[in-house]
Amino acid sequence: MKNNIRIERALKNMTQAELAILVDVSRQTINTIESNKYIPSTLLALKIAKVFDKPLEEIFILEEKDYPVKAGTKK
Amino acid sequence: MRPNYLFPYKSRYLGIALILLHIPVRLIWEMANPGIDSHRLPVKGNDSILFTNEHLFFLASSVLVLIGLFLIAFSKEKIEDEQIYQLRLDSLRWAIYFNYLVLLFSLLFTNGINFIDMLRLNLWLPLLFFIIRFRWVIFRLNRSLNLEKSSHEE
After folding, report:
1. Which residues contact B126 (CB under 8 A, 6 or more apart)?
2. Which helix (H) or strand (E) holds B15?
3. For chain A, which domains are there?
4. For chain A, which has fewer Cβ within 10 Å, the N-terminal or C-terminal residue?
5. How large is the ipTM?
6. What is the C-alpha to C-alpha distance for residues A36 and A48, in angstroms, rounded to an integer?
7. Is the Cβ pair B81, A29 closer than 8 Å?
8. B83 neighbourhood in chain A, CB within 8 Å
9. Distance of alpha carbon B151 from its chain centroid, rounded?
10. Do A28 and B82 count as a contact with CB atoms less than 8 A apart?
11. Could you say which residues from 10 to 29 on chain A have a Cβ atom under 8 Å away from some Cβ of chain B?
C-alpha cells in the first residue's frame, strides 16, 4: 500500500506535527506512515482522509504487491 | 477507543525510583549481615527458616524490584497511539519467545537447586527483556525521524 499523505500535506502547507495533532497520534507515526513503514488502522486512515477532505481511496492506494501471488490467479 | 490498561506516564519514574532505592537498601543489608547469602531463599529442607529476617528481606526487596520493573514496562508513553500499541505487543511477543527459550534451556541443562534459581530469574527476566526491546524499537523510531529531519534541512 502506498499513500499520498506527503503530497496532500504539501498542498495544504501542513507539517507532520500539525497533522499528527489533528488526528491524535505522534509525529513518528505520521512519519512512518508516509515512508510506508507502518500501515495505519482503518480508524486512523479515515481520520487522515477527513483532514484532507478527500475519499480514502485517493489518499491510500493498494498496490500489486499487497496481493499474495497465487499461481494462475494473478490479478 | 479500547481501554489499554496501562499505568499513567509518570509512574515510570516511580518505577525507576523503586529500583534505584532497592540498590542502597540491599547493599546496606549485605554489609550489615556478612555471610548471609540473601540471593537464596531458605528452601533447604528445613521449613522452620521460612519468614526469618533474611527471608522477609528477600521478599521485600524482590517485591520492590518487581513493582519497579512492572511500572516501567507498563506505563504509557507520552503519546500512546496505535503504532506504540503495536510495538508494545510485538515486544511482548519477543519477550515471551525469549523467556520460553531460556526456560527450555534451563529445563534441559540444569537440575535441582539450579533449576529453582532459573525459575527465580524468571521472575524478572521477561519484564527486563520486554523493557529493553521496547525501548530499543522506540529509540529506532525516534532516530529515523531525526535522520529524516536533518536530511530535509540540508
Report:
1. B95, B96, B98, B99
2. helix B11-32
3. 2-66 (1.10.260.40)
4. C
5. 0.80
6. 15
7. yes
8. 25-26, 28-29, 32, 38
9. 37
10. no
11. 24-29
